[in-house]
Structures are given as C-alpha cells and as structure tokens.
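Pasting as-is:
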Amino acid sequence: MRVFVAVTPDPGSRRRLAAVLEGLDDRGLLRRVPAQNLHLTLAFLGEISPTRADSAACAVSRIGPGIAPFRLDISGALLVFGSRRSILAAAVGGDLERLERLRD
C-alpha cells in the first residue's frame, strides 16, 4: 500500500482550496479531487506492507494530539504534475517553523 504522512487543513480551508482549483481548471486539465481528500504531504513513505503502515500510523498518532492548530497560507505558484495530473504543489507561508518541527 502507498503511504504518506500529511497535514489536513480544516474543512473550510479545504472547501476554499477546492473552489480555487475548480476555478483554475477551465480546460479540464486537472484530475478532480474531493475537498475532503486535500492535504499537505509531509513525508511520502512509498509502497510498504500493511504491518509497516500500521506501525507508522501508531507513531504518527502519538505525535498528532500534541500539535496545536497552526496557520499556513498558499504563498506562491500552484504547479500540477504527475502522470494523471493529480499532484498539486504550492508554495506555502505562515507558521513554517511549526510545520518544519512537525515534519522532522
């Protein structure tokens, strides 16, 4: 199974981002992703066994509850890539120090 660790924006932020993406896709070039699936990937673990995925989930679940919400903003260009045009990269700004601590 393909596994990654991600930060999930609050529902309102995901809806706003989905609306922006919909407005950008006037030529049908982007693969539509439901708002509830939008996230910021911190680490891509790749293809791993279900046992290793469970171990990773346990490790992340111990960290997550201690993290207070923090603010991030899209501060730069949006880039779309991938064979299915399904990966969106954006420059982010805001509380980057907390984001980096979480990533580490």
